[in-house]
């Protein structure tokens, strides 16, 4: 498992509530203690990374320890920035009387399905491919499994969508050329109050088409580069966290298979909150017996992966001191 912290990108995912954030933060502390420059990033809209570190985090990296920075990406901020860029681009071409309606459409887009995922993916993609960033390791504390799977498979959907728009633009440009050829003087022989002899609408359309095409091509290239990074087993790995309970096991099994089918490298499954052997009492004994059957099932389902574990702690995980203790336990598990 030590190789996990030697790669550039590490995704920590799993079902909601299994302790992904705790594991991501502890691994970040462990890697930083070894002299690696680490950035741990929360992509879950319900951020808890700052709570685990007991620090206030924002949308920009904040230094928490020597070699360790942390940040919580705000999807709403990403959506707003993206829509502002789109609006500015549209403002260059739309008639002034159209801007009020365009801005209304942009406001509606904020709530459209997939808007946050698309904006979040673009931010993550830029983080993934930025080789100039001052980090040896970037750890992504991801949202629950279903969200993560959509996030990781979105590049293909976005690329297909971009290809469709580019094809549409090419057809529009070709149609414009045909109309130009079939319409002598482009109607200049018929004077109209809308005809401005100082303007050439076809040139304006060509410029717009070129600019839109350039924007779309750049986004497509960004998504493809990010996807290649995700699939690169020398640069990226995905660690699943689960608890020894029925639902997390079932969801992790489905998610691991989905990622493997998508050619995304899964390096291990970490079992969190295992009842310590010295915990006593009849209630805990009954829970331990049930837990033993789930641990056996985990060994069977995920035999092809390393399966480190962390104990169930008597207290909440909050603050650097507890994370350093967990980092030590992770090191004992082979990280």
Short description:
This protein has 335 residues and is α/β, with parallel strands linked by helices. The protein has 10 helices and 8 strands.
Secondary structure elements and their pairing?
Elements: E1 9-13, H1 20-33, E2 38-42, H2 49-53, E3 62-65, E4 68-72, H3 75-91, H4 99-109, H5 115-129, E5 137-141, H6 145-182, H7 201-231, E6 236-242, H8 246-261, E7 266-274, H9 282-301, E8 309-311, H10 320-332
Parallel strand pairs: 1-5, 1-6, 2-4, 2-5, 6-7, 7-8
Antiparallel strand pairs: 3-4
Order of helices and strands: EHEHEEHHHEHHEHEHEH
Distance between the termini: 5 Å
Largest sheet: number of strands, sense, barrel closure: 8 strands, mixed
Share in β-strands? 5-15%
Number of helices: 10
Helix content: 40-55%
Strand order of the largest sheet: 3-4-2-5-1-6-7-8
- The low-confidence parts are 185-205
Structural class: alpha/beta
Radius of gyration: 26 Å
**Structure summary, number of beta strands:** 8
Outline type: elongated
**Mean pLDDT across every amino acid position:** 83
């Amino acid at each position: 498992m030590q190789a996990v912290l030697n790669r550039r990108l590490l995704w920590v995912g799993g079902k909601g509530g299994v302790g992904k954030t705790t594991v991501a933060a502890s691994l970040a502390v462990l890697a930083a203690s070894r002299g690696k420059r680490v950035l741990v990033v929360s992509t879950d809209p319900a951020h808890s990374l700052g709570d685990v570190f007991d620090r206030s985090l924002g949308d920009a990296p904040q230094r928490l320890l020597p070699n360790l920075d942390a940040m919580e990406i705000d999807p709403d901020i990403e959506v707003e920035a993206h829509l502002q860029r789109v609006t500015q681009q549209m403002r260059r071409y739309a008639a002034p009387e159209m801007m009020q309606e365009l801005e209304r459409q942009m406001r509606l887009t904020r709530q459209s399905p997939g808007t946050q995922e698309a904006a979040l993916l673009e931010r993550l993609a830029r983080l993934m491919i930025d080789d100039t960033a001052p980090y040896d390791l970037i750890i992504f504390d991801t949202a629950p499994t279903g969200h993560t799977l959509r996030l990781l498979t979105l590049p293909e959907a976005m690329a297909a969508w971009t290809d469709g728009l580019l094809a549409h633009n090419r057809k529009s440009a070709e149609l414009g050329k045909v109309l130009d050829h079939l319409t002598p003087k482009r109607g200049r022989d018929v004077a109209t109050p809308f005809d401005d002899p100082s303007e050439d609408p076809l040139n304006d359309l060509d410029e717009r088409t070129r600019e839109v095409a350039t924007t779309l091509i750049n986004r497509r290239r960004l998504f493809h580069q990010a996807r290649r990074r995700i699939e690169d087993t020398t640069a990226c790995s995905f660690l699943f966290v689960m608890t020894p309970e029925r639902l997390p096991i079932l969801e992790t099994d489905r998610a691991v298979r989905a990622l493997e089918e998508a050619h995304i490298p899964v390096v291990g499954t970490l079992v969190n909150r295992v009842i310590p052997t010295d915990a006593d009492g009849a209630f805990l004994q009954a829970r331990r017996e049930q837990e033993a059957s789930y641990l056996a099932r985990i060994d069977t389902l995920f035999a092809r992966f390393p399966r480190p574990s962390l104990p169930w702690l008597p207290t909440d995980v909050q603050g650097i001191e507890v994370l350093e203790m967990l980092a030590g336990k992770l090191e004992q598990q082979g990280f």
